[in-house]
UniProtKB/TrEMBL annotation:
The record marks 167, 223 as: Important for substrate specificity. One of its GO terms (molecular function) is S-methyl-5-thioadenosine phosphorylase activity. GO terms for cellular component: cytosol. Belongs to the PNP/MTAP phosphorylase family. MTAP subfamily. Catalyzes the reversible phosphorylation of S-methyl-5'-thioadenosine (MTA) to adenine and 5-methylthioribose-1-phosphate. Involved in the breakdown of MTA, a major by-product of polyamine biosynthesis. Responsible for the first step in the methionine salvage pathway after MTA has been generated from S-adenosylmethionine. Has broad substrate specificity with 6-aminopurine nucleosides as preferred substrates. This is S-methyl-5'-thioadenosine phosphorylase. Its EC number is 2.4.2.28. Substrate binds at residues 186, 210-212. The lineage of its organism: Bacteria, Pseudomonadati, Pseudomonadota, Alphaproteobacteria, Rhodobacterales.
């Protein structure tokens, strides 16, 4: 058993969480550069918590410039065991309406202008992301949402686009009709892949703000409408996050789904062929397997 530390990555509209005891904003240095902001740490219902606003307080960072590697490294470095990603998204399904939440369980990664791995020349690793979210953590988010009276959908495919512009009508229809995506956003990739590389359990709570542009009765995506829905969603998300410590508990076992052993057999580069500089950068993310 080890201490649980719940790390919440707050998306658009969610720039802090409430009710933490001993709340403190702490700057965390990482070998991958500066995280999006300082990390808010504290205790909620006896459980360690950490909160990081993905776009920084004041929403300074675009989806492309969010430092995804630094964010995941920082959370791992301070002891986070379970990452809850909270994100605004558009919906491709009539029944997934603005104001509803979706516990995402699959992704289609259409991003192309981001660093997607901690590994590379001098230390090559291949992890599985076939099942990219943690079922245990996702189940806790589902229960927390239901406990809060939120209309929540259990499972859904999130299409991660580069942005910052929203999709064209042709793209929106293709993602929905041919590709089978349920929701669309700009940030869960490479975040989910990096969390798995860092052996962190990861769940994604997508908060629907709009119907993207496919819906004949709703027209184009309009950021002013999105912001109005975002405010209500952020209040609900705070309630959801507040339920998690009781559901997850202060102590946890190894992940029964293997999220925390993702690197067990993933590193291909022979020990004597590894680049010491890269290995040093991987201290927090992969120290468990590199230092044995
Ligand atoms: C506010 S509309 C577009 C913006 O919102 C989402 O951000 P996040 O995933 O961090 O909640 C979306 O991905 C875009 O970055
Ligand atoms: N329709 C949409 N497309 C991409 N990202 C979004 N975030 C919120 N709504 C979105």
């Amino acid at each position: 058993m080890r201490d649980t530390m719940i790390g919440v990555i707050g998306g658009s509209g969610l720039y802090e969480i409430d009710g933490l005891e001993n709340a403190e904003w702490t700057r965390v240095e990482t070998p991958w550069g500066e995280p999006s902001d300082a990390v808010l740490t504290g205790i909620l219902d006896g459980v360690k918590m950490a909160f990081l606003p993905r776009h920084g307080r004041g929403h300074r960072l675009s989806p492309t410039t969010v430092p995804y590697r630094a964010n995941i490294d920082a959370l791992k470095r301070i002891g986070v065991t379970d990452v809850i990603s909270v994100s605004a998204c558009g919906s491709f399904r009539e029944e997934m309406a603005p104001g509803d939440f979706v516990i995402v369980d699959q992704f289609i990664d259409r991003t192309f202008a981001r660093e997607k791995s901690f590994f590379g020349t001098g230390c090559v690793a291949h992890i599985s992301v076939a099942l990219p979210t943690c079922p245990r953590l996702s189940a806790a988010c589902l229960t927390a949402a239901k406990d809060q009276g939120i209309t929540v959908h259990d499972g859904g495919t999130y299409l991660a686009m580069e942005g910052p512009q929203f999709s064209t009508l042709a793209e929106s229809k293709m993602y929905r009709e041919s590709w089978g995506a349920d929701v669309i956003g700009m940030t869960n990739m490479p975040e989910a892949k990096l969390a798995r590389e860092a052996e962190l359990c990861y769940a994604s709570v997508a908060m629907i703000t709009d119907y993207d542009s496919w819906h004949p009765d709703h027209g184009e995506v309009d950021v002013t409408q999105i912001i109005q829905t975002l405010m209500g969603n952020a209040t609900k998300a705070r309630g959801l996050v507040a339920r998690l410590p009781v559901l997850l508990g202060a102590q946890r076992d190894d992940c029964e789904h293997g999220c925390d052993k993702a690197l067990e057999y993933a590193i291909l580069t022979a020990p004597d062929a590894r680049d010491p500089a890269l290995v040093a950068k991987l201290d927090a993310v992969a120290g468990r397997v590199l230092n044995r």
